[in-house]
């Protein structure tokens, strides 16, 4: 049996997945990423205090499952602190890289980061609502015009740039919007047309148009200067 290399090649990409009570889907999400992990991609899961079996299910399928105070921004920042690679990809627990094209997506991401400091993928929403393709198209169009990305789109960034800008702001909502604004002020994003597949469960559960109206209202109010803490309360109350 050959001995393990005592000096393995450093990871070229670290994928960071924040998680909270995702037992229903985290195993499938991580299983799809195992070929990337086998090729040297570092896979970090950051748990925010799950009370289900999420941690036990994730542990065999990740390089590390880290424990964090709750809050997606805190979780992703902790993951970045433990990342070994010069490139970071923040992937939500209910989002997957293009099925069957994960290796290609990583190659294209790395090519994009050779020219850009950061970027994101286009998105496709999976769910029951017939409006989800329209919602996804509007998200992609808005992002391409505004240069602002959402976490559902799989934000990727050079680690040195992420650290220089202070990472995700420690706020309970809109952390992806705020990071995008900071990154955009640094340089324009790479907008990859490959589509990550993200769960449309919130649109299915609460209705497509009520959810669209809620999210646009919250983003407008954030743009007008309402605090993320207040908006997080409104979001919880609306749901």
From TrEMBL:
Q: What is this protein called?
A: TIGR04283 family arsenosugar biosynthesis glycosyltransferase
* Glycosyltransferase 2-like domain: residues covered: 14-135
User: Which InterPro entries has this protein been placed in?
Assistant: Glyco_trans_2-like, Nucleotide-diphossugar_trans, Trfase_2_rSAM/seldom_assoc
Superkingdom of the source?
Bacteria
Q: Which CDD domains match?
A: GT_2_like_a
Its chief place of residence is membrane
Please report a single Pfam family linked to this protein: Glycos_transf_2
User: From which source organism is this entry?
Assistant: Vreelandella lionensis
């Amino acid at each position: 049996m050959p001995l393990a290399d005592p000096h393995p090649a450093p990871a070229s990409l670290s994928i960071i997945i924040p998680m909270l009570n995702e037992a229903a889907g985290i195993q499938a999400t991580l299983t799809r990423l195992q070929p990337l992990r086998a090729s040297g991609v570092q896979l970090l899961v950051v748990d925010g205090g799950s009370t289900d079996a999420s941690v036990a299910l994730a542990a065999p399928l990740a390089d590390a499952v880290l424990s964090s105070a709750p809050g997606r921004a805190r979780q992703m920042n902790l993951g970045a602190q433990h990342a070994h690679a010069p490139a970071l990809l923040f992937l939500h627990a209910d989002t997957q890289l293009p099925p069957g094209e994960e290796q290609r997506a990583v190659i294209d991401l790395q090519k994009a980061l050779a020219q850009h400091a950061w970027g994101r993928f286009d998105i496709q929403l999976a769910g029951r609502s017939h409006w989800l393709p329209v919602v996804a198209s509007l998200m992609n169009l808005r992002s391409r015009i505004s240069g602002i990305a959402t976490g559902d789109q799989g934000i990727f960034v050079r680690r040195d740039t992420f650290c220089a800008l202070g990472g995700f702001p420690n706020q309970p909502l809109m952390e992806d919007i705020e990071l995008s604004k900071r990154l955009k002020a640094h340089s324009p994003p790479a907008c990859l047309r490959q589509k990550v597949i993200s769960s449309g469960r919130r649109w299915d559960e609460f209705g497509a148009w009520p959810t669209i109206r809620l999210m646009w209202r919250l983003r407008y109010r954030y743009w007008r200067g309402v605090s993320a803490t207040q908006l997080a309360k409104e979001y919880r109350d609306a749901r």
